[in-house]
Every structure is written in C-alpha cells, then in structure tokens.
Give the backbone structure.
Amino acid sequence: MRDKPLIAIGTLVVLVVAAIAFMAGRKSGGEPSPHPVVATAATASQTPAAPSTTEAAPRGNQIDGIRRGTPIDQEGTPPLMARVENADIKRNRAYPMQPPTIPHTIDNYQIDKNSNRCLLCHARANADKFQAPPVSVTHYMDRDDQFLATISPRRYFCNQCHVVQTDAKPLVANNFKDIDTVLSEQPQQKAN
Ligand code: HEC
Ligand code: HEC
C-alpha cells in the first residue's frame, strides 16, 4: 500500500504531541511546587477552623510573621515608623480593664522622679482646668486596695500601660473577640 509511510508519520506526530502534552501537564499542575500552595493546604487540612488571616499574617511556611515573608538568610527592609494620631478621638477598649490608648501626642512629656507631665492635666485637682479626663480611682489604690491621697506609685509611670494611638497595622493576625461579640454569638449556637 502506498499510504503506509504516511500512516507511520501520522502516528509518530500524534505520539510526540501526546508526550509533549504529558510533560507540560506534569510541570504545571501534576507536580506542585513545595512552597506556599502545599503549606497552606497542609495547615488548612490540619486545622479545619483556621481563622482567616490578614495580609500581614504569618503564612504556614514562615518562621515569623513579623519578617513579612523575608527569607531568614536575608535582611528585610523595616516598615516606615508609624505616625502618631493626634485627633482627640477615643478608641474602643477591647475589654473592660484595658488601659485606654492616648488620643494625643506625648512628645517631650517628662515623667521621672521629679516631675510627671501627664498629671499636670490628668490629676483629679487639675482635670477641670485642662478638660482632661481625670485618672480613675484605681490609680490611687495601692496593691492592698487602700486609697492613697496621691497617685499610687505603681500607677506613676503612665506609659508603662498607656500607649499613644498610631496608624500602625497589626504585625500578626489576631482573631480576638470581645465579650459583647461572644455573648451575641451564644443564642445562635444554642439554636443550632
Ligand atoms: C496638656 C494637657 C494634657 C497632658 C499633659 C496629657 N494629657 Fe492626656 N488627655 C488630655 C485631654 C484634654 C484628653 C481628652 C481627649 C483629648 O482632648 O485629647 C486626654 C486624654 C487622654 C487619655 C484617654 C482617656 C480615655 O478615657 O480614653 C489618656 C489615656 C491620656 N490622655 C493619657 C495621658 C498620658 C499617659 C499623658 C502623659 C504621657 C498625658 N495624657 C498627658 C490632656 C492632657
Ligand atoms: C499599671 C497600669 C497603669 C498605669 C501605670 C497607669 N494607668 Fe491609667 N489606666 C489603666 C487602666 C487598666 C485603666 C482602665 C481601667 C481603670 O480605670 O482602672 C486606666 C484608665 C485611665 C484613664 C481613663 C479614666 C477613666 O475614667 O476612663 C486615664 C485618663 C488614665 N488612665 C491616665 C493615666 C495617667 C495620666 C497615668 C500616669 C499618672 C496612668 N493612667 C497610669 C492602667 C494604668
């Protein structure tokens, strides 16, 4: 038959195309890269209720979320310093005994043995003059819950507990829920 060589060539072409297609398939999908895809899939299957993470959150294959994806043998560029917000706007407290964040700048406010600039405005005696909220009664209590006439020594260094408000983004993901959220979720759980 005169067609024989043609059929042979045709079969060869089909085989070569199939082989190329097979190799390409292995490269792109069949053999997954060992990095992010596998890591997230693995963590997801281990902890089905894994919380959704923010963009700055640590990924499964990273040692430390604060490194923001920089490999450990390289030095990362530090993020820009956060700007202090000076807007006089109070932020919500996440839980009842959270020290409120400071809604104003505290640059050059001296706090040492001789002087406490914060108390110039926040001491009970001065609060009306500066229209500042006076420190609460807990700031006058010693560790035995006795009330002192002046600010308690353990509440003297204000910025041990109070921090200024900045526009910094959270470094790691956080799925903290305050008590109001927990309480509002409970009726739904009972109904299920
Ligand atoms: C010049 C007066 C003044 C000084 C000094 C001052 N504050 Fe204030 N502070 C205020 C005023 C007024 C407010 C009320 C909100 C506003 O107007 O910014 C306030 C608000 C606050 C709040 C928020 C209270 C709340 O209930 O949310 C905190 C916390 C605070 N200050 C801490 C400090 C600390 C700590 C220092 C010292 C490092 C300090 N303040 C120094 C005047 C002052
Ligand atoms: C040991 C931690 C700590 C220190 C130090 C401290 N505070 Fe507080 N502060 C708190 C906590 C916690 C709260 C919220 C609960 C409460 O009122 O005790 C608070 C509340 C406040 C409030 C809001 C009061 C209100 O009635 O809402 C102001 C204003 C304040 N602090 C200012 C100061 C100033 C000024 C200093 C320094 C003289 C200071 N704090 C030192 C922990 C602290």
User: Anything to note?
Assistant: Residues 97, 99-100, 116, 118-119, 122, 133, 135-136, 138-139, 151, 155-158, 160-162 surround heme C (ligand 2) (CB under 6 Å). The first helix runs from residue 4 to 30. Residues 9 and 162 are 81 Å apart (CA to CA). The two ends are 76 Å apart (CA to CA).
